[in-house]
Amino acid sequence: MGTQSARKPARHWLLPGTLALLSSIAVFLAAPKFFAKPAVSPLPILGSVPPFELTERSGRQLGKDDLLGTIWVADFIFTSCDGPCPLMTRQLAKLQKEIPHQGVRLVSFSVDPETDTPQVLDAYAGQFGADPDLWWFFTGDKKKIHTLSRNGFLLAAKEAKGELPVLHSSKFVLVDKNGHIRAYYSGMGNSDLERIKKGIRNLLQEAQP
Hints:
39% of the residues lie in helices and 22% in strands. By secondary structure, the protein is α+β, with helices and mostly antiparallel strands. The protein folds into two domains: 2-30; 47-206, Glutaredoxin (3-Layer(aba) Sandwich), CATH 3.40.30.10. The strands form two sheets. It has an eight-stranded mixed β-sheet, with helices on both faces.
């Protein structure tokens, strides 16, 4: 009896260390694929997004201040577009599935806000499975949005003649946690999606203390 009692502590002595090791292995195996590749070289600061406040598809008034502290990818679209806009939105829908859902956001601005009410944007976003917590869609005053595109993001936006209500850029814009523009990417194909993910990884690592 005395021998058996003496052995019991020794049998349980390794348990805490074993659990810690198994926990570490589980965390490692569960790490997102997003972080599997190293970041690229530091991205330059290309400009700064000016203050703005617009109406999100939820009806909330949101703007730059609500995005500070978050890395985001922005584009300018309109829902009745039968050209590049659906392709751009599909590209962001793909990106939505692969980026971290903490500290990163997608932001789409309508360049035809008179047509694209919050309700219209909400229906459009639903067609692409846009997560309302991750992906914001903005509408508001047309002049403010066009000025924001041209002077803030340095992207074309102007009234058009003919069937299209407005001409606009098909670029994606990567913005850091401080509201600085760090990179531009094509919104027209898959080739730049990997570059966007590398840029996001870079900014996430850059933000670490």
